[in-house]
Amino acid sequence: MAILATTYSLALQHFYSGYYDTSKPISAVQIKRETPPRPSDDIAQTPAILALAALEAERRERLPKKSATLWDWCASATPETLFNLLAVVTGLSLNATQQRHEKRHTRHENADQIARRINLDMTKHWQPDAAFFRRTSKACMAGAIKEAASESYSTIAKGLPKLGKAEAIEATVDAVSGGGWLPTPLKTPHIAAPVSAPEQQMEEAA
Fold first, then answer.
1. Which domain of life does the protein's organism represent (predicted)?
2. What is the pTM of this model?
């Protein structure tokens, strides 16, 4: 019942969000869902966002057209269908963004916990491109080159301040392309594996 009621509440909020739908029911399970910020136009065209949008549209097509019948639909769904819907609406509700004016707080820490739990590797979903570096400084570009590229690119990083913005962007994209570089907000922080008792005793003895 808990899965059913939670899924219903989240799906009702996400897929039936019309403000002027006077017939829309109200879930007794009060889960406050805040819509994550919309991605910018260039980010909206990345493979990950496009895949998420396609999944959302596909899931919407499966649901009943009228919100009044959603509860019965959820109640009669198979456990697999219900769990799949819960996974989708949970993913669509996840907000790990950090705006420029924001400081890190427990929401971001929880996002890191989720990322570690699913072993999230953003290099499989995002690559730095010209659109990204247009929003950054030359210092950030130089840092990306030093972090991701080989030693042969070190002279490029040093010479970025002398280049125009367009030339600096092109040089940076060429240098970091395929290197697996990610900006800090997209990195999944990993926790070192705890040392077992025997290993700790050996280290202390050494």
1. Bacteria
2. 0.69
